[in-house]
Design a protein that fits this description.
There is one protein chain. 38% of the residues are buried. By secondary structure, the chain is of the alpha+beta class. The strands form 3 sheets. Strands 6-5-4-3-8-1-14 form a 7-stranded mixed sheet, with no helix packed on it. The structure holds zinc ion (ZN).
Length: 260
């Protein structure tokens, strides 16, 4: 009896030590965000966060690069940079981002769609699927698409123009009959100014060759996966550019122009 009891104590001790030594698990269902959409809208295009650091906050996400050098999409822990020629390139861990959204994608629900839904119809279908409009959500939509219209943004040089000026001449690309993945988020209306209210998707082809920020699409056969996000982790830039920028003057109409 005595020996049995000491074994139990040893086991307990070992378990405690093991759990204390294990790497801390990232909290589930958390969205991490570097900077704010309004800062990006106002031309704060240089951030401090490296992609190496961003990796700690998720395996899936979207964003952009310092100097606004293209659209970023992250899936399965790999980051891609879609430059203004529409081509996707791998990203160095030392590259930096002025704006990014990440999560460890852990779907709460999944279903197939085999209808030729437009982008707007996809948004309406997703809206009907979500339990509430008051959470944040991440989406991974994988399969074949009849069409995906993407855009990217060209690298900027200081003094940086506002984003609404940059997108006036944005190059867009029509990808026809293409396989790939849409990564997206939906943020509630009450987070306006912090992120883009409603849906925001980026696309990457299956061969990781092309992609960008999604302007329009038509589905063919896809699998939709949805991750409900209840926790929000935001890292604000500490540099003087962010500190000096007026973040209260960005109009909802300008965000709509830039993102849709
Ligand atoms: Zn985007």
């Amino acid at each position: 009896m005595h020996r049995f009891r000491s074994l139990c104590v040893l086991c307990l001790l070992a378990t405690t030590l093991l759990s204390a030594c294990a790497h801390p698990q990232p909290p589930k269902d958390t969205v991490f965000q570097a900077s704010t959409i309004n800062a990006l809208m106002e031309g704060v295009y240089d951030g401090e966060t490296t992609f190496g650091e961003l990796r700690k906050y998720g395996d899936t996400g979207l964003g952009t690069f310092n100097a606004l050098d293209g659209e970023m999409i992250a899936l399965h822990s790999r980051f891609f940079q879609v430059k203004s020629d529409g081509t996707a390139y791998p990203v160095e861990d030392s590259s930096r981002t002025p704006f990014a959204i990440m999560t460890f994608f852990d779907p709460d629900r999944a279903f197939s769609l085999e209808e030729p839904l437009s982008y707007k119809e996809l948004e309406e279908r997703l809206d009907r699927t979500l339990p509430t409009r008051n959470f944040c959500y991440a989406f991974r939509i994988t399969g074949s698409f009849a069409m995906v219209r993407t855009r990217s943004v060209p690298r900027q040089t200081p003094p940086y123009p506002r984003l609404v000026e940059v997108v006036k001449t944005q190059p867009s690309f029509d990808l026809q009959n293409v396989r790939g993945t849409l990564i997206g988020f939906r943020f509630p209306e009450y987070l306006r100014g912090v992120n883009v209210p409603g849906y925001h998707f980026h696309f990457l082809t299956e061969d990781a060759g092309r992609g960008g920020h999604v302007l329009d699409c038509r589905l063919d056969r896809v699998k939709v996966e949805i991750d409900d996000l209840y926790r929000f982790n935001m890292a604000l830039p500490t540099d003087s550019g962010f500190q000096r920028t007026n973040l209260t003057g960005t109009s909802a109409a300008d965000v709509q122009k830039v993102e849709k």
